[in-house]
Amino acid sequence: MNWLLVLAGAAIGAPLRYLTDRAVQSRHDSVFPWGTFTVNIVGSFVLGLLTGVSSARTHLLLGTGLCGALTTYSTFSYETLKLYESGAKGYAVANVAGSLAAGLGAVWLGVEAARAW
Predict the structure, then answer these.
(1) Cβ-Cβ contacts under 8 Å for 81 (sequence gap 6 or more)
(2) CA 18 to CA 38: how far, in whole Å?
(3) 49, 64 in Cβ contact below 8 A?
(4) Is the separation of the CB atoms in 49 and 114 below 8 Å?
(5) Per-residue pLDDT tens digits for 12-29
(6) Collapsing DSSP states into helix, strand and coil, what is residue 30?
(7) What pTM value is reported for the model?
(8) If we measure between CA atoms, which residue out of 61, 22, 63, 23 comes closest to residue 45?
Protein backbone atom coordinates (compact mmCIF):
# COMPACT_ATOMS: atom_id res chain seq x y z
CA MET A 1 0.00 0.00 0.00
CA ASN A 2 2.82 2.43 0.82
CA TRP A 3 4.26 2.30 -2.70
CA LEU A 4 0.84 3.23 -4.11
CA LEU A 5 0.82 6.38 -2.00
CA VAL A 6 4.29 7.32 -3.26
CA LEU A 7 3.23 6.54 -6.83
CA ALA A 8 0.06 8.66 -6.52
CA GLY A 9 2.02 11.62 -5.14
CA ALA A 10 4.66 11.30 -7.85
CA ALA A 11 1.97 11.14 -10.53
CA ILE A 12 0.90 14.61 -9.41
CA GLY A 13 4.35 16.00 -8.61
CA ALA A 14 6.10 15.17 -11.88
CA PRO A 15 3.64 16.93 -14.22
CA LEU A 16 3.31 19.78 -11.71
CA ARG A 17 7.08 20.19 -11.79
CA TYR A 18 7.17 20.26 -15.58
CA LEU A 19 4.25 22.68 -15.95
CA THR A 20 5.51 24.99 -13.19
CA ASP A 21 9.01 25.02 -14.63
CA ARG A 22 7.74 25.92 -18.10
CA ALA A 23 5.31 28.57 -16.81
CA VAL A 24 7.90 30.29 -14.61
CA GLN A 25 10.73 30.10 -17.12
CA SER A 26 8.58 31.50 -19.92
CA ARG A 27 8.06 34.66 -17.87
CA HIS A 28 11.78 35.39 -17.54
CA ASP A 29 14.14 36.55 -20.24
CA SER A 30 17.20 35.17 -18.51
CA VAL A 31 19.47 32.14 -18.66
CA PHE A 32 18.98 31.70 -14.91
CA PRO A 33 16.87 28.56 -14.28
CA TRP A 34 14.00 30.25 -12.44
CA GLY A 35 11.62 27.34 -13.03
CA THR A 36 13.82 24.76 -11.33
CA PHE A 37 14.65 27.25 -8.58
CA THR A 38 10.93 27.80 -7.93
CA VAL A 39 9.92 24.13 -7.77
CA ASN A 40 12.82 23.33 -5.46
CA ILE A 41 11.95 26.15 -3.06
CA VAL A 42 8.22 25.34 -3.06
CA GLY A 43 9.00 21.66 -2.50
CA SER A 44 11.31 22.53 0.40
CA PHE A 45 8.58 24.60 2.03
CA VAL A 46 5.96 21.88 1.59
CA LEU A 47 8.29 19.23 3.00
CA GLY A 48 9.04 21.45 6.00
CA LEU A 49 5.33 22.03 6.51
CA LEU A 50 4.65 18.31 6.48
CA THR A 51 7.29 17.62 9.10
CA GLY A 52 5.62 16.94 12.39
CA VAL A 53 2.06 17.62 11.29
CA SER A 54 1.35 14.76 8.93
CA SER A 55 0.65 11.11 9.37
CA ALA A 56 3.03 8.52 7.93
CA ARG A 57 0.70 7.94 4.99
CA THR A 58 0.32 11.63 4.26
CA HIS A 59 4.08 11.99 4.38
CA LEU A 60 4.48 9.14 1.89
CA LEU A 61 1.90 10.68 -0.45
CA LEU A 62 2.95 14.32 -0.24
CA GLY A 63 6.49 14.25 1.15
CA THR A 64 8.06 11.32 -0.65
CA GLY A 65 5.76 11.15 -3.68
CA LEU A 66 4.72 14.71 -4.51
CA CYS A 67 7.79 16.58 -3.23
CA GLY A 68 10.15 13.87 -4.48
CA ALA A 69 8.80 14.24 -8.01
CA LEU A 70 8.30 18.01 -7.80
CA THR A 71 11.81 18.90 -6.71
CA THR A 72 14.88 18.03 -8.72
CA TYR A 73 18.48 17.95 -7.62
CA SER A 74 19.65 16.44 -10.90
CA THR A 75 18.19 19.24 -13.03
CA PHE A 76 19.57 21.84 -10.62
CA SER A 77 23.03 20.25 -10.98
CA TYR A 78 22.80 19.98 -14.76
CA GLU A 79 21.54 23.55 -15.21
CA THR A 80 24.28 24.88 -12.93
CA LEU A 81 26.94 23.04 -14.92
CA LYS A 82 25.50 24.34 -18.20
CA LEU A 83 25.53 27.91 -16.85
CA TYR A 84 29.17 27.53 -15.85
CA GLU A 85 30.22 25.94 -19.15
CA SER A 86 28.44 28.61 -21.19
CA GLY A 87 30.37 31.35 -19.44
CA ALA A 88 27.58 32.47 -17.11
CA LYS A 89 29.70 31.72 -14.07
CA GLY A 90 28.02 34.38 -11.96
CA TYR A 91 24.63 32.84 -12.61
CA ALA A 92 26.04 29.40 -11.77
CA VAL A 93 27.33 30.63 -8.41
CA ALA A 94 24.08 32.51 -7.76
CA ASN A 95 22.10 29.37 -8.55
CA VAL A 96 24.08 27.29 -6.05
CA ALA A 97 24.15 29.90 -3.29
CA GLY A 98 20.58 31.08 -3.87
CA SER A 99 19.14 27.57 -4.06
CA LEU A 100 20.91 26.52 -0.88
CA ALA A 101 19.93 29.63 1.08
CA ALA A 102 16.36 29.79 -0.21
CA GLY A 103 15.83 26.02 0.17
CA LEU A 104 17.03 26.04 3.77
CA GLY A 105 14.97 29.14 4.48
CA ALA A 106 11.87 27.61 2.90
CA VAL A 107 12.11 24.35 4.82
CA TRP A 108 12.68 26.31 8.05
CA LEU A 109 9.63 28.48 7.34
CA GLY A 110 7.59 25.36 6.63
CA VAL A 111 8.64 23.74 9.92
CA GLU A 112 7.90 26.93 11.84
CA ALA A 113 4.51 27.27 10.18
CA ALA A 114 3.74 23.65 11.12
CA ARG A 115 4.74 24.28 14.73
CA ALA A 116 2.56 27.36 14.90
CA TRP A 117 -0.35 25.43 13.45
Answers:
(1) 92
(2) 11
(3) no
(4) yes
(5) 999 999 999 999 999 999
(6) coil
(7) 0.93
(8) 63
